[in-house]
Each structure stands twice: as structure tokens, then as C-alpha cells.
Amino acid sequence: MAFDCKGGFDTNGLTLSFSEAEWLPAGVNYKAKVAQLEAAGGWKTVLVPLTKFVNEKGDNPANWSMVDRIQISGVATQTEPPLFSHFRWVMP
């Protein structure tokens, strides 16, 4: 997955979360961290490979086909609010 972003993100950077089979009893949540340097400042392209996502057991998802929802969280300054654009699936 890739997207473009800019903003005055704090030292924690961004956290991307997604749910796989969210509405099923066996649903699993995965998270990936994006470092502040990868996302802060002017427009930057952020590449987040599937292998960067892990669940609470430390496992990686097999593919993107079961993704139900993607969430981005982080803290940015009021003077440099977060902006996101051009979300896309990319081959590794």
C-alpha cells in the first residue's frame, strides 16, 4: 500500500491499522508503524508493505484480500495539519 501525506506529525509518527474479516468471530487486527521521518514535513510518498503489518501474536497477514477497513492515526500540529492523498495498492 502507498499513499502521499504531509503534516507536522509528532515523534510517534503514524500508526496504520486494518481489520481482516472484521465482522467474523475469527477477525484479526493488524498494525504497522510509520516513523516520523517517513511522514513529517512536505509531501512524501509513504510505502507500507504487507510485511510491516503484524497482529498481536506477531504474525503478518497473507494478503490484502480480506481487508475490511484501514485506519490511520497519529498526532499533528495545528500549524501543519495532516493531509493524505493518492491511496493505492502497489506491488512489492
Structure at a glance:
This protein is mainly β and 92 residues long.
Q: Which characteristics define this entry?
A:
single chain, 92 residues, mainly beta, three-stranded antiparallel sheet, 1 helix, 6 strands, 52% strand, elongated
Question: What's the helix and strand layout?
Answer:
Blueprint: E1 2-7, E2 9-20, E3 28-34, H1 36-39, E4 41-47, E5 67-76, E6 83-88
Notes on the structure:
- The chain is mainly beta and 92 residues long.
- It has one helix at 36-39; strands at residues 2-7, 9-20, 28-34, 41-47, 67-76, 83-88.
- It has a three-stranded antiparallel β-sheet. It has a three-stranded antiparallel β-sheet with strand order 3-2-5.
- A hairpin with a 7-residue loop joins strand 2 and strand 3.
- The chain is elongated.
Q: Give the biggest sheet.
A: 3 strands, antiparallel
Helical content stands at under 10%
Structural class: mainly beta
Kindly state the mean pLDDT as a whole number?
91
